[in-house]
Design a protein that fits this description.
The protein is an alpha/beta fold and 506 residues long. Helix content is 30%, strand content 24%. It is globular and about 85 Å long. It binds xanthosine-5'-monophosphate (XMP). Xanthosine-5'-monophosphate binds next to loops. GO terms for molecular function: ATP binding; GMP synthase activity.
């Protein structure tokens, strides 16, 4: 495997994605907190950073003791970090170097640049530049303005590059990474969904033996894939619990429960609708609603888990972005903080946690799910918030409002599907507004509620753009909702992006 040591760059996860696209397994660790280097580690990549090595509190680490034993590739700040500790000098650039550049000079025959043509476009993003190098260094690539675009330390496998090979604007970036990983580190490109499944299932079998595991299914991609992997390993010793909180989409509980049973999972559907509605009665503050739902879920789940005799483990669908330790950009004494979802185990359950997906990114979870033969309807499903429709009903949640919203939402989602746009939208949903407005239906004056349609494009939910859905489609959806859903006489479309808005309304 490859270790990626993180100095706090926004691109660190992207480097990991690129390495894995080359079917090579890698892990991200904070620069000052990495694991034992055993023989499974074939090389190290040092990430970029928002810091300058000249800053007093910069995150710095001297890798010199590894130069003779392990291939190292420093990217941007990572390269400057290497130069800094080995007799080089890093200064503020006279002009900020940001954007496209071309490698006018590339050293002939250097293994890092195999099949990278001279003139190749690369992406620069740095305020500092390496102005001089230690005596053992050689320059292996330059652009018109950046003399040290890439260097090599003689008699070692240590390289530094000033540009970002992980972004697609670096045209031959993937080739360069492949050269480093395969030719220089000697990695074998055999990490695929199938090999992941094989090793994970074998590992789970060994770890769990004859133990029983309980797992909460949500209908989402992560918990479903985690369940199927565990099922392959331990079969009927996996006890799945799928809670109907009364806040799911229309008919979702029944249809998803059905697919789970079809997959052969040992799953119990629990109707807890009333417990959730009771807890939500009278609450209008979004955070109080969220807390109430979280509390009731834990109570219901715990009741169910207690019905399984001698259960030892709690299965969870935690994925890699949730467990990557982030580098606190406060310098070398950086405290390492974990994501708040990790260890989300209530104390009183006292179970050990098993998380078969905690090394995978979201798109990899989908690929593994596909290789496991899971229903494409489950794998391709839009993200749906844990508190469900409760945060799409502004103000107090009542079963009547849920029923109205479910009808309107079903019309919306079915139309997105039949128009062939469902898969192009990252997330869509309908919001029940606490607003009544006047309308006319026939000769009658109405005074009813408004629903809002939301559809966004996004990569990870952190930022999002509203989707430009075709007017004809919006017109059809609006008509169908107003004509068929009693209680709604007006439909609006949300044209706000995130930031400054958010995807949900609460
Ligand atoms: P926002 O509204 O913050 O949403 O732009 C970003 C993503 O997070 C989801 N979301 C939640 N998911 N519990 C969840 O499990 C929540 O309380 C919650 N709030 C928002 C939202 O659906 C979107 O995908």
């Amino acid at each position: 495997k490859i270790l990626i040591l993180d100095f706090g760059s926004q691109f660190t996860q992207l480097i990991a994605r690129r390495v894995r696209e080359l079917n090579i397994y890698c892990e991200i660790h904070p620069f000052n907190h990495f694991p034992e280097l055993d023989s499974s580690v074939k090389g190290i990549v040092l990430s970029g950073s928002p810091y300058s090595v000249r800053q007093e509190d910069a995150p710095l680490f001297d890798f010199a003791k590894y130069h003779k034993t392990l291939p190292i590739l420093g990217v941007c700040y990572g390269a400057q970090n290497i130069a800094h500790f080995n007799g080089g000098e890093v200064m503020k650039s006279s002009s900020r170097e940001y954007g496209r550049a071309n490698l006018q000079y590339i050293e002939k025959g250097n293994p890092l640049f195999k099949n990278v043509p001279s003139g190749s476009q690369v992406w620069m993003s740095h305020a500092d530049t390496i102005v001089s190098l230690g005596k053992d260094f050689e320059i292996i690539a330059s652009t018109d303005t950046v003399k040290v675009a890439a260097f090599h330390i003689k008699d070692t496998q240590t390289f530094g590059i000033q540009f970002h090979p992980e972004v697609t604007h670096s045209i031959d970036g993937k080739q360069l990474l492949e050269n480093f990983l395969v030719d220089i580190c000697g990695c074998v490109q055999d990490w695929t969904p199938d090999s992941f499944i094989e090793t994970t299932v074998a590992g789970l079998k060994e770890k769990l033996g004859g133990d029983k595991v309980v797992l909460g299914l949500s209908g989402g991609v992560d918990s479903s894939v985690a369940a199927v992997l565990l099922h392959h390993a331990i079969g009927k010793n996996l006890y799945c619990i799928f809670v109907d909180n009364g806040l799911l989409r229309k008919d979702e509980f029944e249809s998803v429960l059905d697919s789970y049973k079809h997959m052969g999972l040992n799953v119990k559907g629990v109707d807890a609708k009333q417990r959730f509605y009771d807890a939500l009665a009278g609450l209008t503050d979004p955070e109080k609603k969220r807390k109430a739902i979280g509390r009731v879920f834990i109570e219901v789940f715990d009741d169910e888990a207690h019905q399984v005799q001698d259960v030892k483990w709690l299965g969870q669908g935690t994925i890699y972005p949730d467990v990557i330790e982030s580098v606190s950009v406060k310098g070398p004494s950086a405290t390492i903080k974990s994501h708040h979802n990790v260890g989300g185990l209530p104390d009183f359950m006292k179970l050990k946690v098993v998380e078969p997906l905690n090394t995978l990114f979201k798109d990899e979870v989908r690929k593994v799910g596909k290789a496991l033969g899971i229903d494409p309807n489950i794998l391709g499903r839009h993200p749906f918030p844990g508190p469900g429709l409760a945060i799409r009903i502004l103000g107090e949640v009542t079963p009547q409002k849920v029923a109205i919203l479910q009808e309107a939402d079903a019309i919306y989602i079915n139309n997105l599907r039949s128009a062939g746009v469902y898969d192009k939208v990252w997330q869509a949903g309908t919001i029940f507004l606490p607003v009544q407005s006047v309308g006319v239906m026939g000769d009658e004056r109405t005074y009813e509620n408004v629903v809002c349609l939301r559809a966004v494009e996004s990569l990870d939910g952190m930022t999002a753009d509203w989707c430009h859905l075709p007017y004809d489609l919006l017109a059809k959806i609006s008509n169908e909702i107003i004509n068929n859903v009693k209680g709604i006489n007006r439909v609006v479309y949300d044209i706000s992006s995130k930031p400054p808005a958010t995807i949900e309304w609460e």
